[in-house]
Amino acid sequence: MKRRDPATADAPPALEGLIQALLSLRSPGEARAFLEDLCTPAELEAMSDRWRVVPLLVADVPYREIHDRTGVSVTTIGRVARCLDLGAGGYRIAAERLGVIAHDASH
Question: How many other CB atoms are there within 10 angstroms of residue 89's CB atom?
Fold first, then answer.
């Protein structure tokens, strides 16, 4: 996966509209309601699983141990790890802002 700058990435109009909708939400309750309306329970579970493994990957916990602790598939863990290393930087930005991981100037 090629690293891309999320600030300059050209989003299709529908995606741009979704991004604007997300940015308009003002509370965790509003965000939860929006996500519950937007996504199926399975989609919410998949996204939650991905987010749940981010701090463990950053802490260099082995994939198998992450799987044993969380039940998240090794395939999903690998996908998140690849995104952390080579993705658009979204996981890292959110994790740093929430204090899940320390700011790393190399990323």
Answer: 17
Coil vs helix vs strand at 103:
coil
**Among candidate residues 69, 29, 31, the one with its CA nearest the CA of residue 49:** 69
> Among the residues of the chain, which ranges form H helices?
13-24, 28-38, 41-58, 63-70, 74-86, 90-97
Global pTM value: 0.81
Determine which helix (DSSP H) or strand (DSSP E) holds 7, and give its type and residue range. none
In three-state secondary structure terms, 94 is helix
What pLDDT digit, counting tens, does each position of 22-73 carry?
999 999 999 999 999 999 999 999 999 999 999 999 999 999 999 999 999 9
Token duo for residue 81: 């790890």
